[in-house]
């Protein structure tokens, strides 16, 4: 079934990307665009292959810090959502502040984190956590609120405690919404990791991109951009696989029929 779906619809985005790369290649070659302005896709792929040994340590560093920051962001996001859900009066007081916290650009906040916490790992993890936790918190709270009141009344009539009501009804019902937040945050985690590496890391895609940009190696910059896109896609697909595993009662992306 999955193969049939890919053959019917999955080839379309691949075809669009191929056409884009072909058009890009033709423009770069026909108009003799300088490599430091816009390198052709073939030169970008060549640089990715030739410079793999140099790029691999930076790629691995970004992967690890993305995973660590994402794990912390998921834990913080879920804990905050559960806490606010179980204490509505706290949610009413704190929720607007959570929204305001997302209006502060991370690129502006990052230098302050360096001043407060130094150049170590902590400020980088804080950046990724700030990027990741909010979509998870909002999605989880929305999922908790979507539980039908009739289900709650039925369980309360059966003698369920508040804890049983949450873990047996509200938590399972909110899982599709929670996984939606997890998928959004998974893509944000790589971006947050790259931004955090601009603070002063020794290695990472952010460092690789900064050095390439300062030396006008645009082909290397595009290699870094390609790696960021592929990593984000990979993290997204991993969350989709976990969603299909943990939400076995639903094979259609979390929607109840």
Largest sheet: none
What spatial form do the alpha-carbon principal axes imply?
elongated
* Structural class assignment: mainly alpha
- Low-confidence sequence ranges: 251-257
Named CATH architecture of the largest domain:
Orthogonal Bundle
* β-strand number: 0
CATH topology of the largest domain: MetI-like fold
Written description of the protein model:
- The protein is mostly helical and 257 residues long.
- The protein folds into 2 domains: 1-32; 39-246, MetI-like (MetI-like fold), CATH 1.10.3720.10.
- 81% of the residues lie in helices and 0% in strands.
- The protein contains 10 helices and no strands.
- Residues 251-257 have low confidence and may be disordered.
